[in-house]
């Protein structure tokens, strides 16, 4: 990693000052943010948060964006009540913090959320998107969960699933060219392994000049040149969901 003292630069860029259009609900043992479109639909998307947790305004903004595109969107608390990472925390303690929050150990919670979406929301076609920690979780789910239709992994940390490439469902991978924690050689290797092992549709896309977190961070106000790539990333995400849900 480029900077061991800052192992995850998810806080690059601004947080949105955003309240959300949805509501918080209790789904068995999990709290979740849910937003539903005005017209009924049988399509839903699970949104998996980054290290800053399910209440981050930026993530809720993306959930609401999915809803404006016709999807039920749900962002569950996949830390299940454990504290999300705070920017003021000591980054030296990050690895210990992460050990108790494994992106590959969310299957029980995902099953609960899938049941809720089917029983309470009438969902029949369900996809998943995730950012950073959540992007790694998407990679995990695309390798093993038969009940999801497709996924979008946004700057998911590749090294957590370095040896697994036999995806079950169409998966779109979004990376930034200037991401400090996901070097381009890792992305190249991922593409090679997918080409050798993957039997379903996939796409790996690198966005020029972009750093970690660019799709759900409000950086266009700081660097106007980033705006087209932020918008492109969001549009690509929606188009992938539209294609497979």
From TrEMBL:
The UniProt record lists the keyword Repressor: no
Protein's recorded name: Carboxymethylenebutenolidase homolog
Any matching Pfam family: DLH
Family classification: Belongs to the dienelactone hydrolase family.
InterPro entries listed in its UniProt record: AB_hydrolase_fold (IPR029058), CMBL (IPR042946), Dienelactn_hydro (IPR002925)
Origin: domain of life: Eukaryota
Family annotation (Gene3D superfamilies): alpha/beta hydrolase (3.40.50.1820)
């Amino acid at each position: 990693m480029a900077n061991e003292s800052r192992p995850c630069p998810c806080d690059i860029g601004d947080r949105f000052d955003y309240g959300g259009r949805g509501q918080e609900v209790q789904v068995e043992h999990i709290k979740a943010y849910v937003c539903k479109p005005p017209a009924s639909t049988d399509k839903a998307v699970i949104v998996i948060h980054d290290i800053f947790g399910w209440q981050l305004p930026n993530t809720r903004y993306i959930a609401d964006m999915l809803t404006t595109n016709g999807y039920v969107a749900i962002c569950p608390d996949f830390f299940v009540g454990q504290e999300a990472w705070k920017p003021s925390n000591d980054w030296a303690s990050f690895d210990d913090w992460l050990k108790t929050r494994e992106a590959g150990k969310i299957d029980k919670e995902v099953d609960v959320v899938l049941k809720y979406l089917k029983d309470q929301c009438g969902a029949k076609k369900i996809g998943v998107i995730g950012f950073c920690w959540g992007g790694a979780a998407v990679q995990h789910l695309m390798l093993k969960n038969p009940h999801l239709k497709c996924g979008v992994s946004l700057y998911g940390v590749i090294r957590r699933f370095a040896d697994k490439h036999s995806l079950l469902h169409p998966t779109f991978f979004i990376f930034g060219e200037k991401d400090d924690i996901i070097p381009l050689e890792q992305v190249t290797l991922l593409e090679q392994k997918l080409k050798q092992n993957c039997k379903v549709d996939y796409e790996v896309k690198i966005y020029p000049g972009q750093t970690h977190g660019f799709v759900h961070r409000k950086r266009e106000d700081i660097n106007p040149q980033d705006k087209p790539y932020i918008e492109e990333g969001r549009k690509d995400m929606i188009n992938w969901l539209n294609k497979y849900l």
